[in-house]
Recover the amino acids of this structure.
């Protein structure tokens, strides 16, 4: 098994550089890789770009060659009709900058606008100056142009829609630049629908990120952008690629697992791999894995397609040059899940590219994929000697779609399972033993045998474990690790305490998770929409309530009840602070089913009593749904919210 570490990355990056002579070399036909100055904004300077280039240069042998200045490099006015760089930000000029980058084995990219002004920084746009600006760009030795849709005078094109105008303006610049310059069409709101015609316009890339602009460094937004990008898959490939925006690894807003998932999904989509973080901060274990990069840079240029999707669980497949396939298993959900796919008849060699683990299978590909993670396999028909593919599951979900971790209580023993399956069925597994470890002080004891002498093809070996968190364990999530058949599986379990017997105000309890439209859910006050503690007294149609939860619909608040509670009750209503505006529906969910609903309530209605039977439920949720209009004023109060337990 190969573990790709920063040390290994450093060794790979020590390869010699090949200087680039000029922008007149043949146009790139593969998705561009490099770094963008977007995070610097208009604080970008020549010195900052050169510093980033020095950090990027060790990555050049892997393909990261383009240093792209996103905007704010132009002087406010042209000189004798020609573009000039801002003398304060780029005192050495663009030509010298390009020469310096070429000497480092890098290339230079600049942003231009198809309109009358640049998108940022106040410089001129290229509207009606396409030929002159393209000549200037090539004279400087620029290798990449991001052509953005900003300040376009649509009034100059009466009777034409935005797409028609774009189909006039973008080809002008593409033709003027010629094939020696990478041409990245950038229309962030998607109004020009570039995927429909970008290939015909000879665009190297065309932006598909229409959900948020630019891409935020957050997992939910990244997934939404990926899903939008997948809708354009049929239009991509053959030297013209879908661009879902920049690689976020190293910025700090996502976990390592989530950054690896983004890189995997982008590689499967043959997307540009352009870093937004300072190259020095981009983790080599993610951005410098040559096997994963090879999937993105495969000469076929195919955009991976979804071949299976069960809501949160996705399988993508992509043909590779030479007859291999890339297959990605992506678990979008908040809990580890087993994802499977049939590779077809015959014997297959499968290598998980992030770890280097190699196995063989007679057709089934199956793995437990951690929450928010993606596994990436190269599949070939080679008959290499390798062990059979093993599917190792720790605490598998009991039902499809279960997204919360198993919850344990301090001092109480719970039960989880592990399963080892000889999925590959190419040989018998012998002497399989499962071992377990957990946080200090936790007791993990097997209730069933932990060893089996043989595991034939398709057979499964299950072990039941008794797990006890120590008394005093704080609420939160914890990891239990298991090893078997040369593999490691991790179970993420939650620790929470159920309410005590009698009646308890929900605002006095810790929730296990909460989602709210504006700001955090508030305890015993209304929702102030911003920081915690900024609410007002809970008030519905003039009646004040000392206790309750203040939310802003849509909202979802979950509590652990451990199967020992019987009922939930509250007064539902729209808080007076929004006047007669606002509307919401109030629900109670017990485990997987809705057990109470208030009906639609508006700001002009008094509070309505809601009572729900939650007998036997391990988790309950209070949900406020949007009333069918906008969510601006939907201050939803769960006043006097009480739970009764045994």
């Amino acid at each position: 098994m190969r573990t790709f570490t920063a040390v290994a990355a450093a060794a790979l990056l020590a390869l010699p550089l090949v200087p680039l002579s000029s922008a007149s070399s043949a146009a790139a036909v593969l998705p561009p890789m490099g770094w963008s100055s977007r995070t610097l904004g208009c604080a970008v300077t020549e010195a900052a770009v050169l510093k980033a280039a020095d950090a990027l240069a060790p990555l050049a042998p892997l393909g990261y060659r383009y240093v792209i200045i996103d905007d704010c490099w132009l002087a406010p006015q042209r000189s004798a009709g020609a573009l000039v760089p801002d003398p304060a930000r780029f005192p050495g000029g663009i030509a010298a900058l390009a020469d310096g980058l070429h000497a480092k084995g890098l290339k230079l990219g600049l942003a231009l606008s198809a309109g009358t002004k640049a998108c940022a920084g106040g410089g001129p746009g290229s509207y009606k100056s396409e030929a002159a600006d393209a000549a200037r760009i090539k004279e400087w030795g620029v290798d990449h142009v991001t052509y953005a849709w900003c300040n376009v005078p649509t009034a100059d094109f009466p009777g034409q829609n935005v797409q028609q105008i774009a189909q006039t303006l973008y080809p002008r610049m593409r033709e003027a630049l010629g094939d020696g310059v990478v041409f990245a069409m950038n229309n962030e709101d998607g109004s020009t629908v570039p995927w429909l015609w970008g290939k015909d316009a000879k665009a190297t890339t065309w932006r598909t990120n229409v959900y948020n602009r630019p891409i935020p460094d957050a997992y939910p937004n990244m997934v939404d952008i990926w899903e939008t990008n997948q809708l354009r898959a049929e239009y991509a490939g053959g030297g013209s690629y879908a661009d879902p925006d920049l690689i976020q690894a190293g910025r700090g807003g996502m976990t390592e697992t989530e950054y690896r998932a983004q890189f995997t999904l982008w590689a499967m989509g043959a997307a540009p791999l352009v870093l937004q973080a300072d190259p020095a901060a981009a983790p080599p274990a993610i951005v410098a894995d040559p096997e994963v990069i090879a999937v993105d840079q495969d000469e076929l240029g195919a955009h991976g397609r979804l071949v299976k999707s069960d809501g949160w669980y996705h399988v993508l497949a992509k043909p590779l040059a030479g007859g291999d396939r890339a297959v990605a298993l992506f678990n979008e959900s908040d809990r580890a899940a087993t994802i499977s796919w049939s590779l077809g008849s015959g014997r297959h060699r499968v290598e998980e590219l992030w770890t280097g683990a190699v196995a063989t299978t007679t057709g089934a590909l199956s793995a437990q994929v951690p929450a928010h993670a993606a596994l990436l396999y190269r599949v070939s028909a080679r008959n290499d000697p390798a062990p059979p593919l093993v599917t190792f599951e720790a605490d598998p979900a009991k039902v499809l779609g279960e997204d919360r971790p198993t919850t344990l209580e301090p001092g109480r023993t719970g039960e989880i399972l592990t399963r080892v399956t000889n999925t590959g069925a190419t040989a018998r597994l012998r002497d399989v033993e499962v071992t377990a470890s957990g946080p200090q002080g936790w007791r993990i004891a097997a209730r069933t045998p932990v060893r089996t002498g043989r595991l034939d093809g398709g057979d499964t070996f299950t072990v039941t474990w008794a797990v006890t968190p120590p008394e005093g364990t704080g609420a939160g999530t914890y990891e239990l690790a298991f090893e078997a058949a040369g593999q490691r599986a991790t179970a993420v379990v939650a620790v929470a305490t159920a309410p005590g017997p009698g009646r308890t105000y929900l605002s006095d309890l810790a929730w296990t998770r909460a989602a709210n439209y504006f700001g955090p859910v508030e305890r015993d006050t209304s929702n102030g929409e911003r920081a915690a503690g900024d609410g007002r007294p809970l008030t519905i149609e003039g009646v004040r309530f000392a206790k309750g939860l203040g939310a802003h619909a849509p909202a979802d608040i979950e509590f652990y009840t451990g199967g020992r509670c019987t009922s939930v009750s509250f007064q539902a209503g729209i808080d007076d602070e929004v006047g007669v505006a606002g509307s919401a529906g109030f629900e109670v969910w017990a485990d997987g089913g809705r057990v109470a609903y208030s009906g639609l309530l508006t700001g002009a209605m008094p509070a309505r009593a809601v009572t729900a039977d939650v007998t036997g439920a391990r988790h309950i949720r209070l949900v406020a749904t949007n009333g069918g209009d906008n969510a601006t004023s939907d201050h939803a109060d769960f006043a006097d919210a009480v739970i009764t337990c045994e």
